[in-house]
Amino acid sequence: MGNMTSILAAKLAFFPPDPPTYQVYREENGKLVLPGVTADKNMDVHLLDTRGGNTIVATFWRHPFARFTLLYSHANAADIGEMHELFYELRAHLRVNIMSYDYSGYGASSGKPTELNTYYDIEAVYNCLQKEHGVKQEDLILYGQSVGSGPTLHLAARLPKLRGVVLHSAILSGIRVLYPVKMSFWFDIFKNIDKIRLVTCPVLVIHGTDDETVDWSHGKRLWELSKEKYEPLWVKGGGHCNLESYPEYIQHLNNFINTMEMNSARRSKQLNANPSITETKHNKCLRFRKRVAALKKGCCIVPKNRSP
């Protein structure tokens, strides 16, 4: 029974567009490109090998004045070929770089979509951000929509210095989308209800109050379980796939990014104002050496305001 339920949940979790909405081409100079995306869009295409043995497509949308990078894990019924307009808008309004990717079996990515493969996929993308684009944990925000909340929280639970997480129409777990169970089973998939407890950075939850695919209760519970809660956005009347059309969506995201920037600036000031542990130990070491040198000369260091 458990195995059958797990298989059913997995089948309901993944709906890659068939046929894919795009292909990847290599120009004569070796540069990878997507059809319809011109050079002035400032976008790089990557083909990344994963631990699962697949090759996935990732696109890096660069903003010239970005402070942060948003790693976007999309929902289960789209591929990145049909999301260009959204990435343009997010990049422009939020002033961030956007790293998007297709799961194994989606778009031009090879393999089959499975829970484990999505974890391998986002790990490969994160490694690319570090090695190819020099992105640090503290400058990275993970964004997961619907099923994309699974790989997002998988990675977030492993990055203690992460700047922030955005959960958009997220799920508590695969089985809980089908049945309102109260406990986690071994055969469940995307156990976000357990992983959210391991995330230490600020978490923004966005969910529609009229979501008929993933009930609003999923978003509310994830927010309740977050260690560092950011003010949630409950979109009144919002469904599962239309939250971007509400003006409060981009406004709230922009406020979140601004808050993360202020937190980052405040943290930098604190680090600059306080001496490091190494500096403190070094200063103590210098004072100790002076005392030893004085004693060797037959002198006695007398504390101030005291008689010898």
TrEMBL record:
InterPro entries: AB_hydrolase_1 (IPR000073), AB_hydrolase_fold (IPR029058). Residues 70-177 form the AB hydrolase-1 domain. This is Calcineurin-like metallo-phosphoesterase superfamily protein isoform 1. It comes from Hibiscus syriacus.
